[in-house]
């Protein structure tokens, strides 16, 4: 009995009949009646101060019918979806519409939804070859793109999920097609008479030593250029020419000194001509 009275009998506790779409939310006590609530898939037809006393099952969509757009099915109820950037706080009932709340920081919802949790924002991991193109909002996920020198191997409508480093060409190959954010590099082999260290956009022809009046020291390969050097005959001719020039200059200096001071007396020698002869001979021997 929940109030003062003159009755000789107490009131009977209400029974929450599952057959009528009800379940017991709160038990009956000496001072209060049972409180009934509706089962999932039902709506209340008779609402009283102590709760619902009669419920009825929601209608089901017939074959060829569908739930109205931007509504979701909860049991047999059609509930209004929450807008992008939000999530469901409480599902709808017969007497109230869906209750929504905003997505938490670090989460997003990019479409109308009947979910109670938003999606977690994606992380652009540098270890996966990615960088952030645009940050996450409550209505859109993070957009990732490949790092410089990488290309996407897991493309999606909303960016890239994983990237891989561009291929490096080997010595003897050239980059025939430079890698992009969506494609890998393409390498091709150099032909005979050309070379590349692997970083060239095209193979380079070997240096032609004879066109530079040089001697071929080492032939070129597909990965290295030819090596050139001075001809050995040219070196000998230049060296001997310098030697003769030095001898002539010294002989000229000696002659000038002799003319100015007269013939010096050298033990065992009789003339400046003899002295010059020995000097010239010794110099030639040194330079040769």
From TrEMBL:
Keywords: Disulfide bond, Membrane, Transmembrane, Transmembrane helix. One of its GO terms (molecular function) is transmembrane signaling receptor activity. The keyword Signal does not apply. The keyword Methyltransferase does not apply. Disulfide bonds join 79-92, 82-100, 103-118. GO terms for cellular component: external side of plasma membrane. Gene3D superfamilies: Tumor Necrosis Factor Receptor, subunit A, domain 2. The chain crosses the membrane at residues 237-258. This is TNFR-Cys domain-containing protein.
């Amino acid at each position: 009995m929940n109030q003062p009275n003159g009755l000789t009998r107490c009131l009977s506790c209400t029974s929450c009949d599952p057959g009528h779409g009800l379940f017991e939310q709160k038990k009956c006590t000496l001072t209060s009646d049972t409180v009934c609530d509706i089962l999932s898939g039902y709506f209340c037809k008779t609402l009283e101060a102590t709760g619902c006393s009669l419920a009825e099952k929601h209608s089901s969509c017939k074959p060829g019918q569908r739930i109205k757009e931007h509504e979701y099915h909860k049991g047999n109820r059609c509930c209004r979806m929450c807008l992008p950037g939000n999530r469901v706080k409480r599902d709808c009932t017969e007497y109230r519409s869906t209750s929504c709340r905003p997505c938490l920081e670090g989460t997003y919802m990019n479409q109308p939804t009947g979910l109670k949790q938003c999606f977690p924002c994606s992380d652009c991991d540098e270890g996966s070859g990615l960088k952030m193109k645009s940050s996450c909002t409550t209505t859109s996920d993070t957009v990732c793109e490949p790092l410089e020198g990488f290309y996407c191997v897991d493309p999606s409508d909303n960016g890239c999920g994983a990237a891989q480093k561009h291929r490096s060409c080997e010595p003897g190959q050239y980059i025939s097609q430079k890698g992009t954010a969506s494609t890998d590099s393409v390498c091709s082999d150099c032909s005979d008479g050309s070379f590349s260290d692997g970083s060239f956009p095209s193979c380079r022809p070997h240096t032609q030593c004879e066109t530079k009046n040089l001697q071929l020291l080492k032939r070129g390969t597909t990965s290295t250029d030819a090596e050139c050097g001075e001809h050995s005959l040219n070196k000998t001719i230049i060296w001997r020419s310098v030697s003769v020039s030095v001898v002539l200059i010294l002989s000229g200096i000696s002659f000038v000194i002799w003319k100015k001071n007269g013939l010096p007396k050298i033990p065992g020698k009789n003339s400046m001509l003899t002295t010059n002869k020995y000097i010239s001979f010794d110099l030639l021997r040194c330079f040769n």
